[in-house]
Amino acid sequence: MQLEVGRETGINDLQRERESATFSSEDFAIWWAGGKAALEERRELERYFIDDPEFEDAVHPTFLSYKERYEHALAKGIKFLVKLRQWQHTRHGDADNVNLKFLYELRMLMSGSLGTALFQQSFPLRLHFSMFLSTLLNQATEEQQKRWLKRAWNLDGIVGTYAQTELGHGSYIRGLETRADYDAESEEFVLNTPRLTAYKWWPGGLGHTANMVVVLAQLYIRGKHHGLQPFLVRIRDERTHEPMPGIDVGDIGAKMGANGVNNGFLGFRNVRIPRDQMLMRHAQVQADGTFVKAAQPLLLYGTMVFVRVMIVRDVMFGLLQAATIATRYSAVRRQSPIEPNLAEPQILDHVTQQEKVLPQVARGVCYRLAADVLWTFYQRVMDQLAHKDPEAAGGRELAELHALSCCLKSVCTLDAAEGIDVLRKSCGGHGYLSSANFDSIQGLASAAVTYEGEYTVLLLQTSRFLLRSYVDGLKRKLLPASVCYLRNNAPLSWGSNLLENAARALEISTTEQVRAAWQFKEDQRKRGNHSEQQATNLAGRRLAAAASLHGHAYLARNSIRALQGLGGLKPELAKPLQQLIELFVLDTFQRQLGAVLKWNSISKHQLQLVEQRFEQLLQELRPNAVAIVDGFDFHDRVLGSTLGCHDGRVYERLMEHARGNPLNQESVNRSYQTHLRPLLLGKL
Which end of the chain has fewer CB atoms surrounding its CB within 10 Å, N or C? Predict the structure, then answer.
């Protein structure tokens, strides 16, 4: 039965929104992509896959079992990789010269628009191209790279993953229990899982996909402990894919999201590997068992830094996916008249809805600005290390990079996961449907809060850097750029520039919180007669709060700096971008208001000025809201949502999806005869 949706359709609503915008979404898309050529190449690549019927899902993934999802994701993933290599070969020739920049771009492609369009809950081969290959690049010697890297890149008998986290230990990696004992007589390492809690747990692709892993294990030589080291281990036979002798491996089961990843468990029982399968770019074990310590031990964790840099961009992408869905739906959905005698307005006309949606759009844009800066910083430090630059080799910039990547990973993932949930709830009951796709987006974002470093642990790691920097500032030493404000003891001087007021208030709050945490820790250590470790634990809440404030202060200041880079844009495009940045900074200020008021003297009138400007920005951005999210240039397949499609056919798509439900393919389900009918005849 065909019914009219109503006089005002979503198509007409979105069309009017686009026609009334003050700038071109195409101009926004060009800026967002980094230029017209980059935009066209991305669109061409997306069409290359999306227009291919082999990549269409005959059955919506939400209707598949967990096992079927894995098998479907793997089959589709292999087709994807084969077709992608054909594309790369046609346009760029053979790409055997693998480097971190190339892996970063490939990883962003897999977790960005194209990868999301094809795999809403990811796929099992992604870690091979991010953590496994990047570890070989960062940790393997030139000789080891010659042996393994090209084969791994070409998937020539090697599908890899990275096994660090264990059943009993995650972010506290010094607590990892997997052992690698060196046997000097045979020149082999013997790997063992000494107890249940030592099983590797969570690595993507480990369950049934990978046949080799980089394993982080505690190294022992003649009973002496030499810390965590990376080892390359074959876990499945290259020909049969059966687990190798001594290997216990499998899938850990369904999760809240990312159910195409094939996360696994792994145990070892007297598994022997040759000496040259310890990755020895930094630390080495010589044939006789002599251990050569790494010049810069922190380099062992280079893979984690690389991944955390990427995660900031990952959650930005998910947040903007959700924001695009919510914005378009809010322009289609009509409800609750503002004036009793007028028609129901688009819910985006309600200020309360604008407050839910638009700050998340602004947050996504500003996370992108920070992610770009963080990636540039990472490249610079890695280049310095490669050339043995004393500034990086001495650890100064590496320590700052580690702290900043920990801090931004923690702050951005937590706030993005919260923002996605706000956006889901802004879509009312329909946002709860799987077909709206918030479950997939939320699942990936929520996982990012705790994988590759649990957020509180990372904040505490950041706080150690902040305390050292604060003490260095007291000694009048030169501070790293990201924390140079710690030396500024001047109180807040409220001026006419609200953005500067907000950013400075956040920096002062961070400085004071760091100072208070440092003082509390010192008091506990000296007067409370506690050890350094006990004092740190007692100060934990204060330290984590300081690191969180630092992250928000950095994001605000970085966004303000980005305003200077908008001068070359068309004025009609620069204006909404300026408004988004301003909205983000003021929203960040208001969200941290408890800490801000604790450490700054700000009047009621001054706070009202911030609130008034915040609400004014909502009103100014409202006419361009749809045009802004159109500028992210998400294909409908990328959004994967009945609520967020470009054409606005929300209600038609909801009904089409419901009618495609396998449960509705029969008018009477068989359970009626087996269960319901006997119950009804029995008459309770």
Answer: N
452 is catalytic: yes
What is the chain's alpha carbon radius of gyration, rounded to the nearest angstrom? 27
Q: For residue 132, give Cα distances in angstroms to 155, 293, 441.
A: 12, 23, 24
Identify the residue whose tokens are 């040759």: 274
Q: Which two tokens stand for residue 373?
A: 């800066």
Ramachandran category for residue 683: left, alpha or beta (phi over 0 → left; psi -120 to 50 → alpha): left
3-state class (DSSP) for residue 255: coil
Q: Contact at 8 Å (CB) between 246 and 270?
A: yes
Query: 645-679, pLDDT tens digit by residue?
Result: 999 999 999 999 999 999 999 999 999 999 999 99
Report the SS3 class of residue 33: helix
Catalytic residue among 46, 400, 452, 582: 452
As given in the structure block, the two tokens for residue 18 are 């686009």
Burial status of residue 480 (CB atoms within 10 A of its CB: 0-12, 13-18, 19 or more): middle
pLDDT, one tens digit per residue, over 50-100 is: 999 999 998 888 889 999 999 999 999 999 999 998 888 887 666 667 777
Query: Which residues on adjacent β-strands are paired with residue 263?
Result: none
Phi-psi region of 227 (alpha: psi -120 to 50; beta: other; left: phi over 0): left
Q: What is the C-alpha separation between 581 and 570, in angstroms, rounded?
A: 17
Strands 179-183 and 212-221: parallel
Question: What does 355-415 look like in DSSP terms, one character per residue?
Answer: HHHHHHHHHHHHHHHHHHHHHHHHHHHHHHHHTT-HHHHTTHHHHHHHHHHHHHHHHHHHH
Question: Is residue 190 very low, low, confident or very high in pLDDT (cuts 50, 70, 90)?
Answer: very high
Tens of pLDDT, residue by residue over 279-325, are 999 899 999 999 999 876 666 667 788 889 899 999 999 999 999 99
Per-residue pLDDT band at 390 (split at 50, 70, 90): low
Q: What is the pLDDT averaged over residues 552-556?
A: 98
Non-local CB neighbours of 381 within 8 Å, separated by 6+ positions: 392, 397, 398, 401
Spatial separation of the C-alpha atoms in residues 657 and 638, rounded to whole Å: 17
Nearest alpha carbon to residue 545 among 611, 477, 462, 481: 462
The C-alpha atoms of residue 571 and residue 458 are separated, in whole angstroms, by: 40
Cα–Cα distances (Å) from 617 to 467, 503, 612, in that order, read 37, 18, 9
Q: Please provide the DSSP assignment of 172-231 as one string.
A: -GGG---EEEEETTTTEEEEE--SGGGSEE--TTTTTT-SEEEEEEEEEETTEEEEEEEE
Look up residue 371 and give its two tokens: 């992610």
- 7 has a pLDDT exceeding 50: no
Q: What is the pLDDT of residues 117-133, one digit of tens each?
A: 888 888 889 899 888 99
